[in-house]
Amino acid sequence: MRAALLIAWKDLRQRARDRSAPVMMLVPFVLAFIFSQIMGGIGSTGLRFALVDEDGGPVARVFVEEALAPIVDSGAVELTVAGSLREGRDLAESGDVSATFVIPPGFSDEVMSGREAWIDVVGNAGSPISTMAASSIAASFAGEVTTSQASMAAAASLGSLDPGRAAGMIERSSGMPDPISIVDVSATQKSLDQNTFFASGMAVFFLFFTVQAGTLGILSERREGTLSRLLAAPIPRWSILGGQLLSSFALGTFSVVVMIVSTSLLMGAEWGSPVGVGLLVTAGVMAATAMMYLIATFARTMEQAQNMQSAAALVLGMVGGALIPIAQAGGLIERVSLLTPHAWFLSGLSGLQGGGGAADILPDAAAILAFAAVAGVGIILRQGSLTRLARP
Amino acid sequence: MSSRFDASEASGLHDGGRPVLECRGLRKSFGSLVAVNGISFHISEGETYGLLGPNGAGKTTTISMVCGLLEQDEGEVLLDGTRFTPGSVKARAGLGLVPQELAVYPDLTARENLRFFARLYGLRGEDARRRIDEVLLLIGLTERADEVSKKYSGGMKRRLNVGIALLHRPRLLVLDEPTAGVDPQSRNAILEGVERLADEGVGILYTTHYMEEAERVCDRVGIVDAGEIKAEGTHRELVDIVGEFDQIQLTATGDLAAAVRALGEIGAVREASVRDGGIDLITVHAPDVLPDVFAKAAAANVLVRRVEVKEPNLEAVFLHLTGKALRD
User: Fold this and answer.
1) Which residue, of B2, B76, B175, B179, has the greatest Cβ tally within 10 A?
2) Are A121 and A135 in contact (CB under 8 A)?
3) Residues 210-229, chain A: which have Cβ within 8 Å of B?
4) Which among A381, A375, A349, A382 is positioned nearest to A286, based on CA atoms?
5) CB within 8 Å: A232 and B121
6) B107/A234 touch (CB, cutoff 8 Å), yes or no
7) pLDDT by residue (tens digit) across A112-127?
8) Which CATH number fits domain A46-173: 3.40.50.720, 3.40.30.10, 3.40.640.10, 3.40.1710.10?
C-alpha cells in the first residue's frame, strides 16, 4: 500500500505542476454558469413576466387569477403589472422582464360572444426560451377558452346564457392543469432545478475527462520510460496500478468538490444532503476512474487512449443526460440513459434536492458502484497489459 | 559459425568471485519472432560483463528478463544464487536498472526524482537524504538538484537516469545502452562511474553496440547476434578468435556490393562486407593482400580513396563471427 500511495503522491505532484490543470478545473463551472444563463437568462429567481390588462373583464380576471396566480405563488414566476401597453412593451424591450402578456380591450366580450379573441405576448429578443414559456401559458389558456366557447355555444343553442354564467363556466374550466407544471420537488418526483442541473451535469460530465490524466498514468509512464523502472523496483505490480487509480480518484473527487462549492456559492445550486452527495460523488468518481482506466487498457499509446476516452466520455455524458435532461423524455431514451453512471448520478442528486437523505439514494449509488465493479473486473482481467507495455 | 569461446563452453567464475547473476538457456519469442534463443552467461561480484551486438540482436529482451520485466519462455535467471522471476519482489531490491530510454519524470526535480525512487526502494529519513546527496554529487547535479529535470541537457538527464539506479546500492547494476545520444563529456563521466562501481564490487551487465565502450569497461564480453551469444570471453580471448587476421577498411565509392563479391574471391580474404561509405575485410597478412584488393576493386569500377589496416578488435571479431559489421 505504501508504494501505491507513493506513486499516487508523485502523480498528483506532477499534475499540480501542469499549468492546464487549474483551467480544466474551471471549465465545468464556467460552462454550467453560461448554460444556466443561456437557458433561462436568469438566475434562481425564476421567470419574470409583465401583465397589461386593458380589458378588465371577467375572462381577463380568470386568466390572471387561475392561470397566472398559481405559478406566481409557486415562486417560479415574478409578475409585474404594467399600467399601460407602452409600459409593458418597454419592460420587455429593456429586458426587465422576459415577456409581457397583453390582454386587449374587449377581450372578455369577444370570448363570451364566441368570437375570436387573443392574448398578445411581447417577448424580449434576448430571452427566447422565456418568451416561449409565456406563449405556452397563453396558448394553454386559449385552449381552455376554446373548449368553454364550444360548451357555451351548445348551451346557447338550447336557451339563453347570461354573462355571469358564461364567466363561471370559463372559471370552472380553468381548474385545468397549470400551463407550466411547477410543483414542490420531492424525492419521489426527481427533477433538478435549472442551476443545480447544469452544475451537477457539468460536474459529472467533466469528471470523466478529469480522471483521464490519472488513468493514462501507465501509458504516460511507458512514454517517459519510467514504467520499466517501476516494474524493476521491489514493489508489487498491483501497487503501480493502485497508485494510478488512487491519483485518479483524488483528482476526480477534488474536481467535483470544487464544482459543488463554487456552484453552491456563486450559482445558488442546491446539492442536498452532504452525506448523500458524498456517497454519490464517491461512487461516481470510482465509476469514472474504473471505466476510463479500462478503456485505456485497450490502447497502445497515449494518443489512442485519449481519443478513445474522450469519445466515451462524450457519448456517456450525452446519453446519460449530463448536458440536456434527456432522461426526462421517458420511454426508450430514459431506459438507455440508465446504462450510464451519469443518469444514476443525476437521479440520485434529484432525490437529494427534493429533500431525500442518504438512504433514499442508496439504489442510485449502488447502480453507480455496479459500473465501477464491472469496470474493475475488466481492469483485473486486462492487467496483463502491464507486461505487454513493458515489452521492449 | 564456430568459435573457440562458445558460450556453452564458458567455464568457471570471474576471478573466483561469487556469482551475482547467472542466466541459463534464456529463450523468449514474440509470436513467430525468436528474440532470444538460449542465451547463457554469468556475472561475478565486481565484474563488468558486456553484451555487444547491433540493434535488434536481443540485448534489451535479455535485460528485460534479467530484471523481471518479461518472463522467459525457457531457461532461468539466478540472482545471488536464487531463482528470479517477475514475481520475485524482494529480490529486486538488489538490482539497479538503467533503461535504454531516459526514465526520469520531467516535471519533477532531480532531487524529487531521486527521493521518489529512494522511497520505492525502502530508503527513508536521514539515510535517504544522505544517499540522495551522495548520488547528486556522484552524477554532478548538486548545483541544479532543485530544477525540474525537463530543463536539463540531454547529458544531465542521462546522468540522472544512471544516478537513480545507484540510490539503493544494488549488487547488480544493469545498464542498457546508457550512453546512447550522449555528448563525449557525459559519456566519459558515465564510463568512469561504471568503472568505479565495479571497483566497489558491484556486478555490472552492460549492453552496447559501441565496440570502444565494451573494450574499455567490460571484463568479459558476450557477442550477441540474432538472439544468440556467438562467443564470449575477455577482450584478448575474443580477439584471438580472429587470430593472425588483420582488418582492412577501405573508404571507397562505386558499386561496393560488386566489389565485395569480387574481393571475396581472393583466397586470403576471410570476410568481406559493405559498410557505410566503404568495405571491411578480414584477411591473412594484409600487406600481401593489398595489391590484389586494389586490382579487384578497380576491376569492379570501385574508386578506393583511403585504406586503413587495423589490428583485430571486437568489431573484427563480430565481423568474423557474423559476417556483418557491428552497426549493420
Assistant:
1) B175
2) yes
3) 224-226, 228-229
4) A375
5) no
6) no
7) 877 777 888 888 776 7
8) 3.40.1710.10
